[in-house]
Structures are given as structure tokens and as C-alpha cells.
Amino acid sequence: MSGKETILVLDNEKKWLKTINNLLKDNYNLILTTSVAQARKHVKDNSIALAILDQKLSKKRTGITGIQVLGTLRKDSPSLRAIILTAFPDDDDISESFHAGALDYIKKGSNDLKAKLINSIERSIEQGKEKKNKIQQGEEKKNVRIFLAYQNEDRKRVEDLFHKLTAKGFIPWMDVYSAAKGKWEPQGQKAIGESDFFLACFSPGSLRKKQSVFRKELKLALKIQEELFIGEVFIIPVKLTDCEIPEEFWQFQYVNYFEKGGFAKLVKMLI
User: Fold this and answer.
1) Which residue has the higher pLDDT, 232 or 170?
2) In a 3-state reduction of DSSP, which class is residue 105?
3) How far apart are CA 152 and CA 212, in angstroms?
4) What is the DSSP code string of 171-185?
5) Which three-class secondary structure state does DSSP give residue 237?
6) What share of the chain is helix, strand, coil (3-state, %, to 5)?
7) Is the confidence at residue 208, as pLDDT, over 70?
8) DSSP secondary structure string for all residues of 18-48
9) What is the pLDDT of residues 157-195, one digit of tens each?
10) Which of 3, 97, 197, 202 is 20 to 30 Å apart from 25, CA to CA?
């Protein structure tokens, strides 16, 4: 096994897979595929350093996009980094790509395509190594602040999550412990703005009730992120029971807290 990093490349056109392969094969181990299902399998089965995803993965106008696939792949690898590649740059796509956490947005056919790709890939790998070193050396900040949003009927299970996070050295904010009675609005808004992570604890109950504090918290967190461009504010849904994450949240990272190893995966995302 070589010491090269493994890169996943997903494109619905084989000619572009061949092009990317020719550009990067000397530098990295490449996994090439035209299938989203196969891409998911590769992410599950391999240690992928980064994914290069074609934005337009279907000839249909409303077909699946690389940005949507990134959200899907992060269900299996929450910390997966990605580059969105496109033949047709679009300002809205650029904005959505970075909002979804993509590292870069690169135009196909650029004269310096190889240089741009390698620069982005190496930057991503270096950032990953730096973070790993900081964690190992104890330099990574310990006081990670986390806002827990949840539907009231899920309180017992979220309290369990609250206590586990506290035991790990995190500082979770949960209204029943942190907010003065009747003072949720100003205190909750301040807590969301000051948190490093926003954990939305989804369940069928939380998705059914359109008018709830849980929904207000989601709306407020999204508004804060959009207006202030705070990279530290993320939605990380935690599935409390078997429920589908709404499409508008696919772009954010999530982990199923109740599956085997779910809490460990969550902690890995937070550090």
C-alpha cells in the first residue's frame, strides 16, 4: 500500500473521469465512479481524504447535484471534505457549495485545472493533519460550546446526550438547565450565536410540529449563519428515532446518535 492519500472522484461522464485520472494519478490513489451508490460504498469502505464531485450529475434539469451528493456522503463520513467541479459555473451554485461546506468550486476545462485541484487537495490534507496534531498534543480548544435544539417530547433522550457531552468536557446549552424561566427568547438567541456547534435533535415529533420552539431554534440558527457567515455554526442533526432528515438539511453533517458507535462519531465531529 502506497503512502498516497485516497481521493474519490464522482462524475457521470467517463471522459472526465479519465481526464481527472490523468491529471492526478501520479500524486494520489484515485477511486473513480459514475454512480452515487458506488460513491457511498467507497466512502464507507475506504479512508477517503477528499471527494471531487461533479456538480451536474444528470442530464435532467432537476437532476441530482454534487452539492446534494456531498450531504449524502457525509451521512457515512461526517468530516468528509470535497471539491465541487463544474463545466458551467453558476453564482448560486458557488454560494451553495461553500454554504454546504465544500472546500472549493472549480471550473472544468481551466488551463490550470491540475494546479487548482492539487492546491485544493493539499490544502485540505494539511488542514486535516494540523487539526489531528493539535488534538494529539492537547492544543485543540477544550471549551467547545454546543447548543442543543429539541422537541419537548424528546427531552429525556436529549438530557442523556447533554450529560454525556458534559462528561466529555464539552459545554452544552440546554434550556432546562441554562435558561431562566420565561427568558428563553433572549437567552436562547444569545446562546445560539455564541455556540461552536448547533445540534438539532430530529425526530418524527419534531418534524410534525411546524410551530414549536424547536422550529424557531432551527430558523434562528440558519439566519445567524446566513447573515454573519460564521463558519463555526453548523446544524448537525441527531436522529432520535428512525426518521428521514428533511431535504433542506442534507447539506449539513449528521450522525445517528442511537446507532452503534453513534456518540463516538458525534464526538469526533465536534473535536
Assistant:
1) 170
2) strand
3) 9
4) EEE-HHHHSPTT-HH
5) coil
6) 45, 15, 40
7) yes
8) HHHHHHHTTTSEEEEES-HHHHHHHHHHS--
9) 888 888 888 877 788 888 877 766 555 566 777 788 778
10) 97
Cell triple for residue 217? 431554534
- Three cell numbers written together for 188: 436562547
Rounded Cα distance between 182 and 188, Å, is 11
Name the residue with higher pLDDT: 117 or 266: 117
The Cα 234–Cα 195 span in angstroms is: 9
Cell numbers found for residue 151: 422537541
Grid cell in block for residue 96: 451553495
Residues 6+ apart with CB under 8 A from 129: none
- Please compute the mean of the pLDDT values over residues 243-247 and round it to a whole number: 70
Q: Is 182 left (phi over 0), alpha (psi -120 to 50) or beta?
A: left
Angle at 226 between CA 40 and CA 93, to 5 degrees: 50
Q: Please tell me the predicted confidence (pLDDT) of residue 26.
A: 92
* Total length of the chain: 271
pLDDT given for residue 23 in this prediction: 93
- Angle at which helix 36-45 crosses helix 66-73, to 10 degrees, equals 30
| Contact between 171 and 143 (Cβ < 8 Å) | yes
Task: Note the maximum CA span of the chain.
Answer: 62
- Distance CA(103)–CA(124), nearest Å, equals 7
- Supply the pTM of this predicted model: 0.53
For residues 52 and 85, the answer to whether their CB atoms sit within 8 Å is yes
Residues 6+ apart with CB under 8 A from 150: 158, 174, 200, 201, 206, 214, 240
Q: How far is CA 111 from the centre of its chain?
A: 31
Q: How confident is the model over 90-106, as a mean pLDDT?
A: 76
